[in-house]
């Protein structure tokens, strides 16, 4: 058997501890599959004495994670600290420069610095792998890089933030308002330390940016994603959507259009009977459409210790086997800068309004939508007690620009109370 592949693990939190558990529990099986043992030489975290439920006494210790990257007894640096800057970035950059292979679960780092890191990895001739960064335990990166490599990808979609899907599912099932379920998610420990990363759609946006780069051979372009969070989704929206046979999901879509690369992460309506409409709680789902394969649906746990460590270990074992894949599916210097297309693809929209209940109010709304180029398909006023009436409009397919123009103009009608709220109805 060949010499062992020696890991240096930076970060011993949820994922890092999970990786150590797998390496220790499945040592023999991994050695058989990889053709060589996988061992741990050294680890790093902030606090050496913290009880992590794992015994790290057999491993070398570094106070500074960057020092792992240059240790003679480390072949692969496994970065599991998180954050797009600071120690995570410094550790990965140093590892690449020192000729070490790198495995990371850090979507923020790749979404912000993926291109420069991929170029550095290519120059150094090292692997940079990140299966765990997108949709946790689902092998979606590997599917795009390998199994689907012969396809021209038309569209990649996904529900990739388990916390948001949990919140939306709970609102639907228990009939609870957003704020109440948000607090429940916090109590259950689902939310990131900064919850806006989850509910603001940023975490899911990081993942979409990474997938789009591989799917379309483009440079990672997180800043070009149109991102909207789930904070404005109300229990009424959930009920109205259900009445029409839809579910509301925080859905990411990346699609190459004639106008350029469209990337959006926003709550939208999807058919309740579609695979995406049926995923519940913290589960993730990624849908890939290729010209030869058709539609491929991948579903599984998007977070948590076991699933995320499973993805990290898949990358580690590939490296132990000597498998080398281009970071984003082709040499980094051949990835093109895609023209961003801001919602070029038209879609019907769901529009929720609160109207003054007086003669001519609906007519003014209809005229304003018409002036913006938005055509009404269905309109419904819900039962109400007071002076205002909840009104729901479903439009014919329209552009995001026309819908934005309508949203800007509607408050000026003098009959719309509060801010109108629009959600795209996605054909999935
Ligand atoms: P975590 O539980 O917060 O653990 C972070 C670890 O990094 C801790 O062990 C911490 O040390 C260590 N650390 C932080 N700053 C450090 C520094 N300056 N020097 C050395 N060590 C430092 O995070 P996690 O949930 O395991 O996530 C790790 C990565 O995986 C992140 O990029 C995350 O986005 C990604 N990810 C996580 C999941 C998930 O389900 N958790 C899923 C997919 C991807 P101490 O323990 O001593 O404080
Ligand atoms: N906060 C993320 C989620 C964790 O809820 O899906 C995994 O990236």
- Report the portion of residues in β strands: 15-25%
Which stretches of 5+ consecutive residues score pLDDT under 50? none
**What is the number of domains?**
3
Chemical compounds bound to the protein = NADP nicotinamide-adenine-dinucleotide phosphate, L-homoserine
Do you know the CATH architecture of the largest domain? Answer: 2-Layer Sandwich
How would you sum up the global shape?
elongated
Question: Which whole number gives the mean pLDDT?
Answer: 96
Helix content: 25-40%
Q: The biggest beta sheet, please?
A: 10 strands, mixed
Question: Given the structure, what is the number of helices?
Answer: 14
Gyration radius, rounded: 24 Å
N to C succession of SSEs: EHHEEEHEHEHEHHHHEHEEHEEHEHEEHE
Protein traits:
alpha/beta, 3 domains, binds L-homoserine, Alpha-Beta Plaits, 428 residues, 16 strands, Dihydrodipicolinate Reductase, domain 2, six-stranded parallel β-sheet, 14 helices, Rossmann fold, ten-stranded mixed β-sheet, binds NADP nicotinamide-adenine-dinucleotide phosphate
